[in-house]
Amino acid sequence: MFQEQQHFPAWIKLLTIGIVVLATVVVLIGGVAAPTNKRAEMWFALAVMVTVDLLLLAIFHNVTFEKVVTTNGIYFRWSPWQQKFRLIGKEEIRTFEGRNTAPLHFGIGWFPGYGWTHNASMAQGIQLYLEDERKFFLGTANKDQFGAAIQNLTSSNPKPNSGDF
């Protein structure tokens, strides 16, 4: 009924790259300015830091927030971190509403008034209120289509056998 993949905004990626470059330059200057007997340690630290930073940047660049709405529920995951989709079943959803994202809140986390948030953009999303009083906020670039799919989900009967993603 609905499927979406989202990536983090370009400005966040550029900010992250800028922070990594700045930290690398600071360590490099520290290595050059360090006493001769400490330079070997600084160069080793720089080599480790650059390797780890490049690995983290590559992974961060490839992170995707995926959402799929079927007649059984809402499946979501953060690829490549999560191999299997997580499910919020149709019967778990009490109500939902369209809502703006929490201010400058990206990724996964808990935010007051939103509950658990999963967000990869500055756009809007859907606030889910579950039967067990928990809240979930799922960010989306297509709030109207995502909301319509959830409306269709909550007003339809689930398929007898749902396959795992």
Describe this structure in words.
- The chain is an alpha+beta fold and 165 residues long.
- It is built from 3 helices and 9 strands.
- It has a 5-stranded mixed β-sheet, with helices on one face. Strands 1-2-3-4 form a 4-stranded antiparallel β-sheet, covered by helices on one side.
- α1 packs antiparallel against α2 (39-62).
- It is elongated and about 70 Å long.
Output the radius of gyration: 21 Å
Question: What order do the helices and strands follow?
Answer: EHHEEEEEEEEH
Considering DSSP H and I runs of 4 or more, what fraction of the residues is helical? 25-40%
Q: Categorize the overall geometry.
A: elongated
Number of strands: 9
Strand content is 25-35%
Low-confidence stretches: none
